Amino acid sequence: MTQPSPLHTSAASGADHLRLDGISRSFPDRRVLTDVSLTVSSGEIAALIGENGSGKSTLLRIAAGLDEPDAGSVSAPGTVGLFHQEPPFDLALSIDGVLDDATAPIRELARLVEVEGQAMADGEPGAAPRLHTAIEAAERHHAWELDHRVDQVVAGLGLAQLPRDRPASELSGGQLSRLSLAWLLLRSPDTLLLDEPTNHLDDAATRSLVELLRGWSGPVLLASHDRAFLDEVGTTLLDLDPAPRPFASVRHDHDSPGSGFGVTKFTGNYTAYLQHRQDERERWVHRFRDEQGELARLRARVRADHTVGHPGREPRTEGKMAKKFYADRNAKVVSRRVNDAETALERLEQDQVRKPPARMRFVGLAGQASGGSQAPAAGPVLTATHVAVARRLAPTSLSLGSRERLLVTGANGSGKSTLLSVLAGQLEADGGAITRPDRLHVALLSQEPLWRDDAQTVRTAYATAVGLDRAERTPLATFGLIAGRDADRPVGSLSVGQRRRLDLAVLLADPSDVLLLDEPTNHLSLLLVTELEQSLPDYPGAVVVASHDRWLREGWTGERLHLEGHA
């Protein structure tokens, strides 16, 4: 079945920048975006960041014309292309067919130059400006070096070793994702939108993508969890999480627990932004605390200032003129003080910042779940001896201690996910042996979210997965992974990152002896990824992590296993 193409031509093709103005978007059960405005200039690479569910993917879909905002407008230069979850081509096509489909419009631009050149040679009226326009378009889309560009993109994204006649339907999820990215890059849209482009890229593929993006002539807007990638490629960060901005005052906050208002722009890399964001949060908390204290003081003053002097005490003289004098003076003082206090109170009530939203805090891999790992205190709990899977995993051996931390690395296709599936008992190896105690509990967090009934609420899906008794003993809220406002939403309305949060909560509700994490940084928010990494030493059993994430790998202190790939 042919998927809807994420490529369209903007009505504002004469612009040289991407502009989103006052974008708001609500769904039946929540508001996602409120008054978001941003501009990305040609040659700029802007990165959207924010918590899972903050609206990054929704904003990209709106920018691509695949979703309509409730309010606001979008303008962009020329063609607009989005890389997202769905392949933009017919899965029945071969790899060669996909590449031909991607490059067909570019080849047409080169052909058009020849047509207009011949028209000019023939003296056709108006041919000269048409030829100039055709040449400009062909150069902008790299039409003259297209064959070289195809080889560069295919090799750079780790697809060169695949037979060109293989149908796309036979590719693995990671290969299909990289082929979809290749299709979009070769299609060369003027405005490039990318949703988690590095999820299935190894170091070499990420370097290739970075090189291509740095040479992109039009605006680039992307959402990514990859901290090293953001540091390397992003020229601007756009944070969708709430921040203390003038339009975020309480008078504009219609009791929405959803996204923040607008967007916070930061020019600099992600490392610098982490400190900036922490400082901003502290200032917000302090300002809110100080304002609430001042509001309480002003309200008390308004109440007290309605009475001035000593109401139970008579004037020093009983004369009528004296009584009137004191009464008039008292009334003027009361009126002035009350007016001053009420004016100050009204102004502060109008302009006070809204309360900083309680940030969801992940309690860590140890969690607060009952039970706990039953792994023995010493000795290996899981041993793999020369385990192999044809065309997917070369013979591999490892031995895990009860509290060991093992990082599995390797290029795309080297067998990282396959190894974890074998260790989890979800895939049978063609050769070798797995040795483990009969009652050893092994759990796997897969790269992509598990299938769950989309109609079920998140709370119900959790209870279904872990059992009613365990769900009562260890409620979903225990782990700080799913916001309370999202617990009664349908699973089908969750973002990919929120679905992975649910999968992780299910695993932590019944801590396993061996926890296997396959690309745990994929789709999860930057903040949660950091908290997840920091909690790895606390897990009560062994942990095996397969990851291409450079930030995670650079900070790893446990054991390592590098897979070279299969023959």
Automatic annotation (TrEMBL):
ATP-binding among keywords: yes
Key words of the record: ATP-binding, Nucleotide-binding, Repeat
InterPro entries assigned: AAA+_ATPase, ABC_transporter-like_ATP-bd, ABC_transporter-like_CS, ABCF, P-loop_NTPase
Domain ABC transporter: 18-266
Annotated PROSITE patterns: ABC_TRANSPORTER_1 (PS00211), ABC_TRANSPORTER_2 (PS50893)
SUPFAM superfamilies linked to this entry: P-loop containing nucleoside triphosphate hydrolases
A single GO molecular function term of this UniProt record: ATP binding
Keyword Nucleotide-binding included in the entry's annotation: yes
UniProt protein name: ATP-binding cassette domain-containing protein
Organism field: Ornithinimicrobium faecis
